[in-house]
C-alpha cells in the first residue's frame, strides 16, 4: 500500500523553471511584511527581483504577464526556522530520517547536504505559503550547522538560499525530580548529581569554544574540520542558535555568548518573558517554538504560549516563530494567527514569520518583505493567510519562479473524490 501511494505522487510535481519574463500582480491587498498594508496595490517582478510595489494602477511593463488579484491578498513567503523539514520523510522509518548524527559535539555536520528536495512533505508545506526553511540537525550537545533552503529545486545545490549560517547548541539543563526511571534525584553516593552532570557538560562546551576561538585566530596549516567549522561564529558570519527554555538557562546562554564574542539566538525560550531585560540589553532574539501548546509548568498561565509573542513584542525583543518537527510546519501561519487573539495585531503576527524570521536568519536584505530590490518570494491567497479557514494559496513564487502548488494530499483527495463521486 505504501509503495502504491508513493508511486501515485512520485513524478508529477517538478521544480519550477527560472522566471521567463516580467510579471505584474494587480488589484491586490499587499501585506508588505513590515506592518504596512497597500490596498488596491500592484507588485511587479522580473528576473527574480521585485521591481515595483505601489498603490493604484501598475506601471506599463511591455510583455509582462498580468495576474489579476482583485479581492485577493499578496504576502511575502513565510519563513520557517529551526525545522527538520527535508531531513525526515517518515519518522518511523530510519532510512528516511537523516536529522541526527552520532556523538555529542558535531559542529562540522552540515544539514545542507542531507536536504531532500524530493520529499513529498515539502509540497504540502509550501502549499500553505511556507517558501523558505532552515533545516536543522538534531541530537547531541552541538548538533551541527544549518542553512536556509528554498522549498523548490532539483537538488540541495539548487535549493540553497544561504549556506551554513548557524551552529546549533542545546544548553545543558539541571532536571530536578525523584525516582530511578527518570534518572534524576540527587545521585547516590559516589555518583554525579544532575547539577554536576550539567556543569560538566557546560565545561566541555566552554573548552571546545575556547579551543575553536584559538584555532580561528591562529589559522594553523593543519586543518581541523570540527574547529574550522566554528570559525564563522567568531568573525560574525555565523550565529549560535542555543536551545534553552528556562530563565536560568537562557541567562547562562546569553552570558556564554557574550563571553565568547558570538551572536546568540535563543530557540524555545519558554521563560524568555521573564528575562526580557537581559535579552534586549544583549540584542539576543528568540525563536519561539509553536504557540499551540500547553504551558511548561503547572503554575503557569494556561494561555502563556499564546501570549508569549505579545509579551516579547511589548518588551522590544526581536522574536520569530517556528513549529514542531517537519510536516507540522504547514501550520506555521495558523500558529502565528493564534497569537492575534492574544495581543498581536495581524501585521505583527505576519512579521513574526516573515521579516522577523528573516532578520534572525540574516537574510532580511534579500527577503522577508515585499520591497523593491528584494527577491520575489511571495504568494497570492484568496483569503487571510493566517486563518486556516480562509487561507487558499493560488499562486506562489520563489525568486520569481512560479512554483507548483500540487501535492500528494491534493492528489489523493482528487483520486478518492473521483472514486466516491464527490463534488
Automatic annotation (TrEMBL):
Reply yes or no: does the keyword Hydrolase apply: yes
Q: Which UniProt keywords apply?
A: Hydrolase
Gene Ontology molecular functions: hydrolase activity, acting on carbon-nitrogen (but not peptide) bonds
Gene3D superfamilies, A to Z: Metal-dependent hydrolases, Urease, subunit C, domain 1
Cross-referenced InterPro entries, in alphabetical order?
A: Amidohydro-rel, Metal-dep_hydrolase_composite, Metal_Hydrolase, Metallo-dep_Hydrolase
Residues in Amidohydrolase-related domain copies: 341-385
Q: Does the keyword Lipoprotein apply?
A: no
PANTHER family to which the protein is assigned, alphabetical = ALPHA-D-RIBOSE 1-METHYLPHOSPHONATE 5-TRIPHOSPHATE DIPHOSPHATASE (PTHR43135:SF3)
The name under which this protein is listed is Amidohydrolase family protein
| Protein species of origin | Mucilaginibacter aquatilis
Amino acid at each position: 500500500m505504501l509503495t502504491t501511494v508513493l508511486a501515485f505522487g512520485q513524478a508529477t510535481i517538478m521544480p519550477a523553471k527560472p522566471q521567463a519574463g516580467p510579471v505584474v500582480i494587480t488589484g491586490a491587498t499587499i501585506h508588505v511584511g513590515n506592518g504596512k498594508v497597500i490596498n488596491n496595490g500592484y507588485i511587479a517582478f522580473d528576473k527574480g527581483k521585485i521591481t515595483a510595489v505601489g498603490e493604484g494602477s501598475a506601471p506599463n511593463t511591455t510583455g509582462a504577464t498580468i495576474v489579476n488579484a482583485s479581492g485577493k491578498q499578496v504576502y511575502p513567503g513565510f519563513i520557517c526556522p529551526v525545522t527538520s523539514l527535508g531531513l525526515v520523510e517518515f519518522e518511523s522509518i530510519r532510512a528516511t530520517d537523516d536529522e541526527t548524527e552520532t556523538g555529542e559535539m558535531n559542529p562540522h555536520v552540515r544539514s545542507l547536504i542531507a536536504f531532500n528536495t524530493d520529499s513529498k512533505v515539502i509540497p504540502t508545506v509550501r502549499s500553505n505559503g511556507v517558501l523558505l526553511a532552515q533545516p536543522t540537525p538534531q541530537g547531541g550537545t552541538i548538533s551541527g550547522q544549518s542553512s536556509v533552503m528554498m522549498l523548490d529545486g532539483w537538488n540541495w545545490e539548487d535549493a540553497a538560499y544561504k549556506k551554513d549560517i548557524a551552529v546549533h547548541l542545546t544548553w545543558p539543563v539541571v532536571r530536578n525530580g525523584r525516582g530511578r526511571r527518570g534518572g534524576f534525584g540527587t545521585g547516590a553516593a559516589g555518583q554525579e548529581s544532575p547539577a554536576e552532570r550539567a556543569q560538566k557538560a557546560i565545561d566541555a562546551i566552554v573548552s571546545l569554544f575556547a579551543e575553536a576561538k584559538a584555532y580561528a585566530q591562529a589559522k594553523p596549516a593543519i586543518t581541523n574540520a570540527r574547529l574550522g567549522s566554528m570559525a564563522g561564529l567568531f568573525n560574525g558570519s555565523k550565529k549560535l542558535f542555543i536551545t534553552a527554555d528556562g530563565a536560568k538557562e537562557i541567562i547562562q546562554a546569553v552570558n556564554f555568548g557574550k563571553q565568547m564574542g558570538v551572536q546568540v539566538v535563543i530557540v524555545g525560550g519558554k521563560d524568555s518573558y521573564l528575562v526580557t531585560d537581559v535579552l534586549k540589553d544583549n540584542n539576543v532574539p528568540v525563536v519561539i517554538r509553536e504557540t499551540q501548546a500547553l504551558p511548561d509548568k503547572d503554575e503557569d498561565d494556561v494561555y502563556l504560549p499564546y501570549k508569549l509573542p505579545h509579551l516579547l513584542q511589548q518588551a522590544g525583543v526581536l522574536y520569530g516563530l517556528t513549529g514542531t518537527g517537519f510536516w507540522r510546519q504547514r501550520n506555521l501561519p495558523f500558529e502565528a494567527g493564534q497569537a492575534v487573539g492574544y495581543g498581536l495585531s495581524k501585521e505583527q503576527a505576519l512579521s513574526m514569520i516573515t521579516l522577523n524570521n528573516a532578520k534572525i536568519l540574516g537574510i532580511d536584505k534579500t527577503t522577508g518583505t515585499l520591497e523593491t530590490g528584494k527577491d520575489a518570494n511571495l504568494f497570492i491567497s484568496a483569503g487571510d493567510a493566517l486563518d486556516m479557514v480562509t487561507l487558499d494559496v493560488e499562486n506562489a513564487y520563489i525568486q520569481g519562479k512560479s512554483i507548483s502548488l500540487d501535492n500528494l494530499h491534493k492528489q489523493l483527495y482528487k483520486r478518492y473524490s473521483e472514486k466516491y463521486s464527490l463534488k
